[in-house]
Amino acid sequence: MKKKVAAILDLVRPALQADGGDVELIDVTNGVVKVRLQGACAGCPMSQMTLKNGIERILKEKIPAVKSVEGV
Predict the structure, then answer these.
(1) In terms of DSSP bridges, do strands 32-39 and 21-29 run parallel, antiparallel, or are they unpaired?
(2) Which side of the chain, N or C, has fewer Cβ within a 10 Å radius?
(3) pLDDT of residue 45
(4) Domain residue ranges in the chain
């Protein structure tokens, strides 16, 4: 499942990089994906929205086994 999550993150990464940020996959355990937002995304006040409404939504859409996405 970690490889599938990494592949989906590669699809959303260009949008984050366009705004000066990035995302790093830390771990996938029992359907919980842990990521670290980097660059401009790390300090952005909208980062939780990006995490939940962007990354989590897309991952759940593409991989039904994903339960949630957490920032670390």
Answers:
(1) antiparallel
(2) C
(3) 87
(4) 2-71
Amino acid at 46: M
2-61 pLDDT, tens per residue? 999 999 999 999 988 998 999 999 999 999 999 999 998 888 888 888 888 899 999 999
Backbone Cα Rg of the chain? 11
Supply angle C-alpha 70, 45, 61, rounded to 5: 40
What is the domain class of 2-71 according to CATH? alpha beta
Backbone angles phi, psi at 64, to 5 degrees: -55, -20
For 8, the token pair is 């989906």
Asked if residue 30 lies in contact with residue 67, where contact means CB atoms within 8 angstroms, the answer is: yes
